[in-house]
Amino acid sequence: MAGEIKQRMIDSTALLLAKRGLQGTSFSEIIEASGAPRGSLYHHFPGGKDELVLAAVGAAGERAMAVLEQLSGRSAVDVATAFLALWRSVLTRSEFSAGCAVAAVTVAADSNELLDRAGGVFRGWRHSLSDLLTAGGVDERRAQALAASLIAAGEGAVVLSRAERSLEPFDLVANEQLAVIEAASGGHPRHHDDPTRSDPA
Amino acid sequence: MAGEIKQRMIDSTALLLAKRGLQGTSFSEIIEASGAPRGSLYHHFPGGKDELVLAAVGAAGERAMAVLEQLSGRSAVDVATAFLALWRSVLTRSEFSAGCAVAAVTVAADSNELLDRAGGVFRGWRHSLSDLLTAGGVDERRAQALAASLIAAGEGAVVLSRAERSLEPFDLVANEQLAVIEAASGGHPRHHDDPTRSDPA
DNA sequence: GTCTATACGAAGATAGAC
DNA sequence: GTCTATCTTCGTATAGAC
């Protein structure tokens, strides 16, 4: 099916963006990584690299959204734990060579269109997380602040840990965030050796 | 003096890195921005772009360290407020077009040398902030986690606000972090309409 | 020590065959 | 619709004059 190869190109692009950043990701690498023929790239994406990157940012956003949707009905601590575990697994599975594609694109964006797409993804995450935290026992106003904090702290912690090539900063940040969420949600307890560390997938 | 022009090249590079990212920053732009003659670039930096970027990351690290050193003796909330205000002013003064040069380099680093430099900067910030928070009334172990959280949340919040081109996410995150610091330092109160917003410099 | 002109390579885009 | 070969642009680096 034609959609197969197209999707593989998008996914490969998202991964490369998360590893090397926007301008650090070349067409040649995408082609090699996806196994796609060079000619078909412009067939599927007439807009070239810009169009492909736009699609990859959207896909990265959707992937996280899909994870969040699975968490409906869980406690606030569970939700936060799962969200942080997602980022931790990105670090461990890539051996600190990958981070967040959306953030990587944001700090090197060369068009408003790209920035809009990235902003839309973050807005979506904030909204979804906020709803989940509210449902999980957090006051609605506070949930908005905690959702933004969770995303910001997670994103930042990934950067710190990539630079230091150590999980130490990420784990410090993750534990701190979980403690705050726990307190804000009325103290649903979490496991002692925090569940963030159980690698999913 | 020869050091003048060299410093201006470094500073221009740091600013461009914060705006456009690593590979998005070209030599031509640096030359234009710094007003330096093209020939003198390789005179001062025989190692070319790599050497210049390395220096710029170090300079960006030092600049924040200098701000932190001014805060010795202040309360934990004051320290956190000043640190967050620093990032908020980067956003407002650049109209959301700039972020953190160290983070931008980290997510697009193409050498271990560069990653090491960035990691060293973050370690330095963490250490310094942790000491300040401890002196400001926070338990020593907790101060390490709060220092990492403050940096991570600040970095992440800058990314969110750049992408959304709005201070909303940054302010949500900053207020949340300040509330946590306040609680952890024994409740030294902060102003009602948070002092993060008073732009320094 | 500063400048200009240029060489070299890489990356994105395109044209035309199959 | 898929592929290959090529064109153009741009960015880094260097060489050599002043």
Describe the protein's topology:
The structure is a homodimer of 201-residue chains.
Chain A: H1 2-20, H2 27-34, H3 38-44, H4 48-69, H5 76-93, H6 101-106, H7 112-135, H8 140-164, H9 168-184
Chain A binds a DNA duplex (18 and 18 nucleotides) through residues 2, 26-28, 37-40, 42-43, 48-49.
Q: Any key phrases for this structure?
A:
elongated; DNA-binding; Tetracycline Repressor, domain 2; mainly alpha; 73% helix; 201 residues; 9 helices; homodimer
Task: Please describe what this structure looks like.
2 copies of one chain form a homodimer. Chain A is an all-alpha fold. The first copy, chain A, has one domain (2-186): Orthogonal Bundle (Tetracycline Repressor, domain 2), CATH 1.10.357. Chain A is 73% helix and 0% strand. Chain A has 9 helices and no strands. The first copy, chain A, has helices spanning 2-20, 27-34, 38-44, 48-69, 76-93, 101-106, 112-135, 140-164, 168-184. In chain A, helix 1 (2-20) packs across helix 2, helix 1 crosses helix 4 and helix 5 crosses helix 7 (112-135). The relative contact order of chain A is 0.13. Chains A and B meet through helix 6, helix 7, helix 8 and helix 9 of A and helix 6, helix 7, helix 8 and helix 9 of B. The structure holds a DNA duplex (18 and 18 nucleotides).
